């Protein structure tokens, strides 16, 4: 395959699985397919052969996705390397300009997964309009000439468990053991809770490490250990070792550190590749960091009724998939005396755009500063660094002034 060329170059062409793509088609669309070159179609794979399954990249949750594929679906997991600039360029090249950045990130992930030989792509994104994106992404990839199955859980959301089992058997493995799969699915949930617990500990303390890089190395060692888990006992043991290793690391944490909370959109707020390593940049400034937007809090322990009750003074209606958690978390951070909150979203994310006026009111009522970050596929590190440094300086001066 030829190397990708710069997006927007009208003369650039790219071959993607036999489909010739011409960019800059007079403004009539993100790409144009020319007649495919003649090629021999590969023989259809044995439906009962072991399948290669890939997820999109999403923070450190690839560890749980791997366990799900190998021990629930009984298939082979296609591990993706760390994303590069090429990943987002791929996704942007074949996406409409109107879709949000997560769509482009995920589409780029899928193309790279198919290049690595994936047979099945998994999509579960939602509950916002991302829940509709799986079908559109499948259509784009098929137009590009790729052959694969799409295991799109958005099509069975809210349906009985039998529907989930049926689609897994149809798309991945007709011989899936239901008792074995259900037992290991519970282990997946436990693993997600463990991953979030360790990351919470990391965020709260890594900004004050006595030895540079020690917390990152310990967390990466923990992730590697968890990737080798094959059962719930392995998960529990890896968790114990990981927590012990992080807690044993020396820190130089002041009595009253600058504390910052992160709130925002489900994908961008949690995924380092999407938010340009926001957490690592903040930790490098020396803050105690908290992020309530995790799969544990949004998927496994989510209680919309309780969240809505906690923000009744600010919200009277359901504003969208992550809105209640965003607003409730920001309000809780203010009530607990946090020094500031960073609101993170992809450009054009309607639910989180609607949250902004409410967050501004919370900021006025409590005096807590808020920083609003909106990401698209062109957001640069330089601009982000400048804004974060200025925000931190303001918080630190405000905290120092409060002592006097």
Automatic annotation (TrEMBL):
Gene3D superfamilies referenced in this protein's UniProt entry, alphabetically: 3.40.50.11900
InterPro entries, per database record: Dehydratase_Activator_Redct
Protein name in UniProt: DUF2229 domain-containing protein
């Amino acid at each position: 395959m030829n190397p990708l060329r710069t997006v927007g170059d009208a003369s650039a062409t790219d071959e993607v699985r036999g489909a010739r793509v011409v960019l800059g088609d007079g403004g009539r669309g993100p790409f144009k397919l020319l007649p495919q070159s003649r090629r021999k179609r590969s023989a259809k794979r044995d439906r009962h052969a072991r399948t290669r399954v890939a997820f999109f990249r999403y923070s450190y949750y690839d560890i749980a996705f791997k366990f799900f594929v190998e021990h629930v679906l009984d298939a082979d997991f296609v591990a993706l390397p760390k994303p590069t600039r090429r990943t987002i360029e791929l996704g942007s090249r074949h996406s409409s300009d109107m879709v949000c950045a997560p769509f482009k990130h995920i589409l780029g992930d899928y193309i790279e997964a198919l290049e690595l030989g994936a047979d099945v792509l998994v999509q579960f994104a939602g509950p916002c309009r991302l829940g509709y994106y799986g079908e559109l992404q499948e259509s784009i990839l098929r137009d590009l000439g790729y052959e694969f199955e799409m295991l799109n859980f958005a099509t069975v959301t809210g349906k009985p468990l039998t529907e989930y089992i049926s689609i897994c058997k149809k798309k991945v493995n007709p011989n899936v053991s239901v008792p074995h799969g259900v037992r290991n699915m519970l282990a997946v949930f436990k693993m997600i809770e463990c991953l979030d617990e360790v990351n919470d500990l990391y965020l709260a303390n890594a900004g004050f490490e006595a030895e540079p890089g020690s917390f990152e190395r310990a967390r990466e060692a923990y992730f590697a250990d968890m990737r080798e888990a094959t059962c719930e006992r392995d998960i529990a043991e890896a968790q114990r070792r990981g927590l012990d290793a992080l807690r044993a690391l020396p820190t130089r944490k002041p009595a009253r550190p600058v504390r910052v909370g992160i709130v925002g959109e489900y994908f961008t707020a949690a995924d380092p590749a999407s938010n340009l390593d926001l957490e690592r940049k903040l930790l490098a400034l020396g803050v105690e960091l908290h992020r309530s937007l995790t799969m544990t809090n949004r998927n496994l322990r989510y209680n919309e009724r309780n969240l809505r009750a906690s923000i009744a003074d600010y919200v009277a209606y359901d504003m969208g998939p992550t809105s209640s958690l965003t607003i409730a978390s920001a309000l809780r951070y203010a009530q607990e005396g946090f020094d500031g909150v960073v609101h993170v979203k992809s450009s054009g994310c309607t639910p989180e755009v609607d949250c902004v006026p409410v967050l501004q009111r919370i900021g006025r009522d409590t005096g807590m500063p808020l920083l609003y970050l909106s990401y698209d596929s062109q957001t640069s590190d330089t601009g982000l660094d400048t804004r974060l440094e200025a925000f931190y300086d303001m918080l630190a001066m405000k905290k120092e002034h409060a002592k006097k």
